Amino acid sequence: MKKVLTFIIAGILLFTVGCSSKNSSTTDSKTEEKTQDIPTITISWGNELHTGIMNVPLKKVEEFKRSGVYINPLSDEQFELIKDNKKIALLNFIKTKGGSEVATLMGQGHLDAAFTSNTAMLSAYDQGTKLKILSPVQTDGVGLVFGPDKNFYGWDDVKEYIKDSNTPMKLGYHSPVSGPRIVLESVLREQGLTVTEDPGDSSADVLLVDLKGAQNLLPSLSSKQVDGWIGPSHYPETAEYEKLGKIVLNLEDFPPIGQWDNFPCCVFAARDELIEKYPEVFKAMVQLITDDAKYCMEHKEEVSGILSEVIGVNEEAIKMSKIKYTTDPTDKWVDGIKVYYDAIDHMGKFSGELKNKSFDEVKQKIFYFDYAKESNK
Q1: DSSP secondary structure, 94-158, as one string
Q2: Which of 56, 169, 170, 352 could form a disulfide linkage to 226, CB 3.0–4.6 angstroms apart?
């Protein structure tokens, strides 16, 4: 009898453990399936004012939570994207140094989405990266800086200063495919100045110098590497505030006057594959960026303090910036992208997908503004 009871108990235990294991396995499977439904998106922005706008909702979580879409930081490199109190994506953050690096990483598939220059995304598309520009991020916020001893301002004085030099004026830029570099080269050529990238060409008016990253802009003047440079905010303002340089032109003052005012610069873009697979994630991202842009424009004092702490520059320098944040792809904004496109095309820098393409064709290929237009209603 004892043997029979022992056998029955053992059977019950075996059955219980088996059921338990089965339930556990099913639960684990459901948990794993649920986790897999939440995509991980690798995203980047730089440590400056143009693309660093997402630092604000990271610091003001409760403020943005009220709008329905916000990001919850888990660490300095990983954030949850939350919409209507539901986690819809995990964002893995990479800090990038400039448009060239962003274009390369997106082309290699190491980066899914980015805040970067529109010209970098045009170049990336030209080289075969399937992507879409989903919204503007900001306009303006570009300055040409010379040494701190200069006492002039405006294009006529700049042009005269360049022409009076006995050797090519060395002007630097932070990234080969950046908006500031394209603006500078385009204006120089249109104004009748000769431009080269060959240090051995002594006949040119201007020698363009790749400073290989925005972090090298400020020290390049004191080291005499260049005579001046063009760069995005906060760098021109910091140079002037710390008496390391003098802003001799802001973007709206480049010729022809009126063309560059409120001009497009950085954008939010993502690879087609990810947009098609996770449309709700990117729709939410654009809504968040729209809310962020409005907050930054309505709370400039507070935002200057936040960005000063994050970026590590003086708050007063940030307040000097003329940058405007927006995600509204107006007709004027699109026309501004055409100016960039035509300039790059005229300089012969397209060699792949965009070579010999009209801007109307390009608009169909690279722009997708449905989310931005909806968020700006």
Answers
A1: EE-SSHHHHHHHHHTTS-SEEEEEHHHHHHHHHTT--EEEEEE-EE--EEEEE-TT----SHHHH
A2: 170
